[in-house]
Amino acid sequence: MKKILVVEDSSFFGRMLKNKLTSETGAKVRWVTTMAEAVTLVRDDASEFIAAIVNFNLPDAPRGEIVTQLVGYDIPVIVFTSVVSKEVRDQIWSERVVDYVLKEGVQSLDYLAALLRRLERNPETEVLVVDDAALPRETIAALLRVHRYKVFEAADGREALQVMKEHPQIKLVITDFHMPNMDGFELTQNLRKQWSKDDMAIIGISARGDNVMAARFLKCGANDFMVKQSFLTEEFYCRVSQNIENLENIAAIRGASVTDFLTDLPNRRCLFERGVRVWQQAAETGSALACAMFDIDHFKQINDKFGHDAGDLAIQHVAKVLRESLPAEAIVARIGGEEFCALLPQWSDDAAVNCESIRRTLELTALEIPGRDEAIRLTISIGLTTEPGASLEAMINCADTLLYQAKDSGRNRLVC
After folding, report:
1. What is the pLDDT of residue 174?
2. What is the CATH number of domain 268-415?
3. Exposed / middle / buried, residue 248 (Cβ in 10 Å: 0-12, 13-18, 19+)
4. Among residues 12, 28, 38, 139, which one has the fewest Cβ atoms lying within 10 Å of its Cβ?
C-alpha cells in the first residue's frame, strides 16, 4: 500500500493532515513529530513513500534540515509551513522540493491533496524537452523529474520528431525557439500535423521574451509560452500541471461520451463509431464477423420485485460475464436498458458456442443482493448472426430480429 510521510510537530496540523490525506488519497499516512523519527522510518523503506509533507521548522531541525535529509532519500518533499520569507523560499527551491504550501486553511489542504494525486499520476506522463543548449535543457528536465514525470530530451527539432515517433504517447513538449536544423516554430507546426491540442500540449520557451515571440508560438499551435531566464519555479510547475490536466480533462470527457456510466462498457455511440471500421474491414477482406444481441429476460420483474438498485446490479453482472467471456478483440457495448451488443471479429462458428456458454453461465448463477435473503435468478435471450449484410446497421438489425425470435419462442435461448 502506498505511504505518505507527515513530519509535523503541531498536534493540530498533524492530525488534520493525517485525516485529510487518508480520506483524500487512500494512502497509509505515517505521522511523526521530529526529524529523527522521520529518518528512522524512511531509512529502510524510503521507496515505499510516494511523498513527504514536512514542517520547515522542527524542534530538532529548526532551519529546514529535514528537507535535505528526505530529498537525500529520493522522496518527493512538499514543505507545509506558516511563513515563507524570501530567504527561506530560496532555500526551499534550492533543495529541489516538489512545492511549498502555506498553512492558510482548507484551501491549502485541498491544494495539497491535489498535488499528491498529481504526483501519483506523473510517472506515467511522458514529457519531451527540446533545446540545443545542454544546460537549460538539463535544468528543465531536472525540474520535471522532481515531479516524477518521465522525461525525454532532444537537442533540436529533427531529433525531437524522431523521439516523438518512438514515443507517440508523449503528452507535453517544451521546446526552445533558437535551434539548428529546425527551430521551435517549425517543430511546433510539424507536431501539430499529427497531434492536436487535445492530444498533446506544447509550451514554447525562449531567451527572447517579447510579445511577438509568444504570439508567433501560439499561432504555430503552441498552448503556452515562457521566457527561459525569468520564470519562477512555481510558475513553471503551475503551467506544466495546468497543461497536463487540461489534456486529462479532455480525455475524461471523451471517455465519458463513449462509455456507459453503469457498466463501464462502450455505449451505443462507441459501438457504431468503432464497429463501422470493423465491419468495413470484414466486408473488404471477406474475414469472419459475428454480431450478437443479448437481452435480460423479464427485467421489469426484477426491478418490480427487488428494486431498481438490484436491477442495476443485474445489468452490471451481465456486463461482467460478457466482458470476461468474450475475446479481447470483441466490441461489447451496452446499447440501452437491459440490452447489449457484441461484435466479434474473426469469429463465425465459434460464436454460437461462446454465446451458448454465456447463456448457460448466467442461467446457473444466483446473484446475491446486499441486505436481501433471496438471490436473483436471471436469464438472457440471444440473437446471433454471422452474415455481414449490407451495412453494420443491417447486421445489428438482423441480430436484433433473431433476438426477438428468441424472446417470442420462450426466452432463455439462443437463436442464430
Report:
1. 98
2. 3.30.70.270
3. middle
4. 12
Mean pLDDT of 211-238: 90
The phi, psi pair for 207, rounded to 5°, reads -75, -25
Predicted pLDDT at 400: 97
Element (H, E) at 10: none
User: d(Cα 364, Cα 367) in Å, to the nearest integer?
Assistant: 10
172: which 3 cell numbers? 507535453
Mean pLDDT of 322-331: 93
CATH of 125-255, one of 2.102.10.10, 3.40.50.1100, 3.40.50.2300, 3.30.710.10: 3.40.50.2300
pLDDT of residue 230: 78
Q: How far apart are the first and last CA of the chain?
A: 49
Half-sphere exposure of 3 (CA within 13 A, CB side): 13
Report the share of the chain in percent with pLDDT over 90. 80
- Who contacts 241 (Cβ-Cβ below 8 Å, separation ≥6)? 118
Cell of 141: 528536465
Cα separation of 344 and 325, whole Å?
Answer: 12
H/E stretch holding 333: strand 331-336
How high is the pLDDT of residue 209?
Answer: 67
Over residues 344-392, the pLDDT tens digits come to: 998 767 889 999 999 999 999 999 988 888 889 999 999 999 998 999 9
With cell 509551513, the residue in question is 81
For 3-120, CATH number out of 3.40.50.2300, 1.10.10.10, 3.60.15.10, 3.90.76.10 equals 3.40.50.2300
Cell of 162: 524522431
Q: Which residues contact residue 126 at a Cβ distance below 8 angstroms, ignoring those fewer than 6 apart? A: 149, 150, 151, 152, 167, 169, 170, 171, 172
Which pLDDT score is estimated for 350? 85
The vertex-274 CA angle with 124 and 254, nearest 5°, equals 45
Residue 31 CB contacts under 8 Å (≥ 6 apart), including other chains: 6, 7, 8, 14, 15, 17, 18
**Where is 370: in which H helix or E strand?**
none
- With 90 as the cut, is the pLDDT of residue 210 above it? no
pLDDT in tens, 60-75: 999 999 999 999 999 9
Indicate if 268-415 has the same CATH topology as 125-255: no
